[in-house]
Amino acid sequence: MGDMYPSLDGAGPAGPEAAVAPAPQPEQQPGPPAMPDPGSWNLLHAEKDGVLSVSKTFWEGCRLVYNRGLSNTFQAAHTFTLSREGDKENNYTFAPVYVGTRDDGKGALEQSIICQGELAADGSQSAQLILGPSDPLQLVLVGQSKGKQWVYSQGSASYSGDGWSSSLMFVKQPMQQATIYISDYLRKWGERMTVGAQFMASTTDVPQDGIPSVVPMVSLAARWREKDWIATGTVGPMDGSLQASYYHFIPPIQGSGTTMAACDFIWNPQVTGKPYPIAKLGFQANFRQAIFKGQLTSEGEVAASLDQEVFPPLTFNLNGSLDHHTGVFKSGVGLTFNS
Asked: Which run of H or E residues covers position 149?
């Protein structure tokens, strides 16, 4: 079924690693992002997701982001948005983040707790607590409300062993009157290959004829990782869902910036909301003071984003998209200030 971890806003997959964080700053990257191996299930397509992220981070209108580091362990982000896009119209968001550390026993500090929240002027709130009692064990609690209504709850526990990882998760969605239980297991098979399986059971909170409705799902996954490219596939034998992605890192040539390309094919109506498969193709170019991303989808949408560092504390942000089927063009311009 692919990445089935619901996100805080219900818009797509996410997991314990998903966090409210300031916008990344343009910087030179010597190679592909270092990811845990085998890592967690929701990180199977992580490299591809990092390149094909324009649509997920897209905003329309004007945006001002101010990230303030109050101490080594606490920071806050203020986001002001002027937009005509639905519930994001003329909104303000306050997002504090606390990162606690502990001694790893070797004289170095490591993260032991991450507490983050988000409060918007429209009344929506979300919070996430990540606890690391030990290196291999991680506990996560997530909650979201809109006004006076509680709309989302999530709890998970994950464990990383020697060459394997496993997790248990529950998701409560009161508005849909549903509860989802997820269990997954990943195992390294040799130096380059990772295989695994995920089991998910969706239950309704209102029994029919006194019998709770349970819908089981099983997904299988495989990933092959080379130095400069990664190929990943997940398949759901019970519902016929399929997702395949490819990520390629292109080293810099003659002092130029690094480039990453990715493509994605997904056929899963429960995730995309479409009865047909969707394909995406995109790239990311990292320069000394800028990051440029572009992507094209099989639905005829072209999108691009640019993060240009004006001077060290200030970054200029620009994104745009054009839907060739409807002829609708959207754009957004913003500034990000870090202190």
From this structure: strand 149-160
